[in-house]
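Bug: token stream looks shifted between consecutive jobs. Job 1:
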Amino acid sequence: MRYAVLVTGPAGSGKSTFCSSLLTHLQTSRRTAHLMNLDPAAESFEYEPSIDIKDLISLEDVMGELGYGPNGGLIYCFEYLLQNMDWLDEELGEFEDDYLIIDCPGQIELYTHHPLLPALVNHLSRVGFRTCAAYLLESQFIEDRYKFFSGVLSAMSAMVNLEIPWINILSKMDLVTGGTDGDDPTAARNGIRRRRDIARYLDPDPFLLASAEESNTSNPRFHMLNQAIVQLIEDHPLVQFLPLNLSDTDSLETVLSHIDHTIQYGEDEEPKEPKDMDEGDFADAMD
């Protein structure tokens, strides 16, 4: 069985940093993992990708030769990939029983309504990959409750569009401190939050969050719209978040354990035979 994790989310949510940290953690744990770059505009990586869409097509070439803009060029790159899946099959052919971490672009429309990524996911399933997605939402979204609700809606839309096992992650939690009333509000870039307040966003009760904001709302004209959005989230309670602090190894290990559980990592693996050894293998130990 082969395993793949699509790392998705809006631009600036920390997807590439998460991919690099996850690779480092897996290698430290002596697990085999590989990076696949699915962003045709990416320019630099901490780890060299084992599979890179830019070896097939790049956004720079599309924009230069066809005159497309960034968004149109990105869609063209994905359409071109889907028309050349034999290239991807050849690239994937060498990986068996490995962990493939797929770093996706930050254009949100790819996850919420375009059929391109669902088609790719279906293909991965056909060639024997057990796939899940990790959707990253930056912790700055909890600065404002209705901004947070918009992030929840985007995660929900992506979940419905891709139809695969899913984990939502509130990233960059190292920028949000569990503060007290005496803490300096400038100590954290995304604002100080008490642990109790942060917990409200991890398993959100939308009506509770909305009622807490009601007395401070600055746009009462949008009250009915906000309430309709809150009701939609309440009627479809699909979204929960795991906090991710990349400066904390335990936080990364918790996220990884949830990913492993979601894709049932290792459950179908057979015990591997140890390699044959001869007298030469013991020569160093006998000296």
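Job 2, same session, no restart:
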Amino acid sequence: MLSGGLNVMGFGWMTCPASTELEAIVIDWLGKLLQLPEEFLTSGGGGGVIQGTASEGVTVAILSARKRSVDELVARGASEFQALGKLVAYVSEQAHICVEKAAQIAGVGSNLRILPADSSTGYTLSPAVLRRAVEEDAASGYEPFFLCSTMGTTSSAAVDPISELGDIALQYGMWHHVDAAYAGNACICPEFRHYLDGIEKADSYCMNPHKWLLTNFDCSTLWVKDPSSLTAALAIKVPEYLKNKAFESDLALDYRDWQIPAGGRRFRSLKLWFVMRMYGASGLRSFIRNHIAYEKVFLKMKRCS
């Protein structure tokens, strides 16, 4: 209520310095709580941004990946049209449908490979299946450019092998996005952090505090190793009325260049700040652990019925 009542326009540092500065701070707080690698944090040259949903997060990621790959292909002599036609993205059939929509928005919907995942692998995306698909596409002259792995699929709660998939993404120069919309929140607890092993091989990571971290909708946190990839794809020519010395000297962030909308932006960081300050690390971990304990009781009851 307070975030909405303040009616902040937080799309740029000039319009609301407090909103911008607080967002950078709380994103780093949460990143450290997750034990994300330093290169995902502002202090390490990366950074985070609060999106509305994980759907926006994957869309931002795939647009950034497309820009990076198209530029590389154009540098090698292809036209932009030819380059776009060569791009291929990969995702498990268990992944959220937002990946398909993001691919459509990015203009690569027809070149999205939706790979099978069945009970033999616990409904996770098999590295062998991914490698086979990537090798076939590369041999056919396509350019593998984007991989989305999932930590906690909607239909089966499957956790893709992030590290092994990351090795393949690195080998072929693909952007690796990890969608951990709900389950990623559990990784603030040390005993569940191993599910994020291999995250250092990814390019971006997204999770939703509004799903399992006591924060009201909408609050989806996206971290990237290379913020310049986002701004290269999403920045616009700044009109005179938005120019300011801080932005021109690279001393301030303008989050409008880290998101789809060019203008309005809610003061989302304030509600996350309140939650983290009120509950602290121990309170948030206790909340997650209690839910998991409830689930174990429910599972026991179900097996006995």
